[in-house]
Amino acid sequence: MKLIVFSLLLLVLLGCGAKTVALHTVKSDEIAVYVVDHGMHAGIVIDAKAVAGVIAGLPFNGEAVRFIEFGWGDQAFYQAESFSLFLAIKALLLPTGSVMHLVGLPYDPGIYFRSSEVQRIRISPMRLNAMLSYIDRSFVRDEQGQLIDLGRGLYGESRFYAANGDYHLFNNCNTWAMSALIQAGVPEPMITLGANSVMRQVRAYQNQSAEPVK
Q1: What's the domain count of the chain?
Q2: What DSSP string runs through 153-170?
Q3: Taking 50 as the threshold, does the pLDDT of residue 115 lie above it?
Q4: Per mean pLDDT, which range of 5-19, 62-76, 111-125, 147-161 is the poorest?
Q5: Which domain does 57 fall in, by range?
Q6: Does residue 45 sit within a domain?
Q7: Is residue 28's pLDDT more than 70?
């Protein structure tokens, strides 16, 4: 029993396969937001131009980067060059520092993450602003208001940045992603631990609100 519980806890941390949704008729002012399932970690991808209007100081070239992926996770484990069981257990059982992970995407997330499940929802500008404001508050900034760069990210054109909040079992990378999506209007689940629960909520929201293409 202890081994099963430990395995489940470890899967949550390891969270910190392209299947895109069908196109739907939408309101002209709605903006697309993408959610990527990286196994046990869910990332949020937003149009770079929309992001630039709310979150200042991002490093990406507007011409080369069309979308930006956001992720939040344990500082030590997320940035570790290789798997560490000690860091995994520490991050799960003790409140630890956190980081933001940003990735600049040159093209559509469904193509860039073609080996992963990618779901798309459309939200109003008001909802998008609420989501971006939540993401913006996740960053730690210096006295000049600049993002605090912590080094190269995990893949592609990516960087780590200092973040607010402590990481632990019940405040993990997927609860962070779900909190951002709640700002976008996605209903809050009873509990969020893994990316599967995030993706399930996104699919339910999409199926409830989408209209077939005519």
Answers
A1: 1
A2: -SSSEEEEEEBSS-BBTT
A3: yes
A4: 5-19
A5: 13-209
A6: yes
A7: no
